[in-house]
Amino acid sequence: MRSIVSFYICYLLCLGLGLACVVCVSYWNHRWRGGFAWDGTALQFNWHPVLMVTGLIVLYGNGAVLYRVPLTWGQNKLPWKLLHATLMLLALVLSIVGLCAVFDFHNAKNTPNLYSLHSWIGIAATALFAIQWVVGMAGFLLPCSPISLRKLLKPVHVWLGGSILWLSIAACISGINEKLFFVLKGNGNGTQSYANLPAEAVLGNSLGVLIVAFGLVVLKILSTLNWQRPESRPEDMAYAPLLQEENE
């Protein structure tokens, strides 16, 4: 029973940190960057961090830990597979829209695309995510997929999933830092220097800390053996984790 309680404490922390990340990045771009639009201006760029943090970090992380929720263990796995795939697809769509926002902004301003390390890591994470989703859909959801293929794909799917999350975190952290350096130059444009740590810098840095904390909690949930979903069993041998924990 202690293991179940520990899981739900971590899971609630994961949900809370994820919500804090979304609120923080949205408030930052609304309060200090002027809000949102889709017109090729800096207001369109503001969608980029919001959508990437929401999709590539928060939704992705929550989709990754879905199978660890003990309430799902004694039930048919197919609905949870579909929910997992849906959450990941939503995360991927938001990420792609976030990339469109920054590409359109750069093109409107005649700014080169994909020249920074941040952009390289971000595009690599999104591309791997797209490949991961397509292969996962084909390997784990299509009825024609053989069991032997699923067994072969599963460890690769799990490893690549964790790797994509950390690539996404690296992209977001570098992107936050890059943005703060760009806008907080303190050169007479009404802003203080980043080095002086004004309120916007504190919020941006805090967002980075929240993202890292979220990633660490997700990693904790994914790496704890006691919280892994038991292997599938026949319907008449449905697994009841709560009852088993109480009897041990």
Task: Supply database-style keywords.
248 residues; mainly alpha; Four Helix Bundle (Hemerythrin (Met), subunit A); 71% helix; disordered C terminus
Explain the overall architecture.
The protein has 248 residues and is mainly α. It has a single domain, classed as Four Helix Bundle (Hemerythrin (Met), subunit A) (Up-down Bundle), CATH 1.20.120.1770. The protein is built from 8 helices and no strands. The longest helix has 37 residues. The radius of gyration is 20 Å and the shape is globular. It starts with a helix and ends with a helix. The C terminus is likely disordered.
Write the layout of secondary structure elements.
Layout lengths: L1 H30 L10 H4 L1 H18 L12 H32 L8 H24 L6 H37 L15 H25 L17 H7 L1
Helix pairs in contact: 1-3, 1-7, 3-4, 3-6, 3-7, 4-5, 5-6, 6-7
Protein name: Lysosomal membrane ascorbate-dependent ferrireductase CYB561A3
Organism: Dicentrarchus labrax
InterPro entries: CYB561/CYBRD1-like, Cyt_b561/ferric_Rdtase_TM
Question: What is shown here, in short?
Answer:
This protein is mainly alpha-helical.
- The number of distinct β-strands equals 0
Class, according to the CATH hierarchy? Mainly Alpha
Which sheet architecture does the biggest sheet show? none
Spatial separation of the terminal alpha carbons? 9 Å
CATH architecture verdict: Up-down Bundle
Helical stretch tally: 8
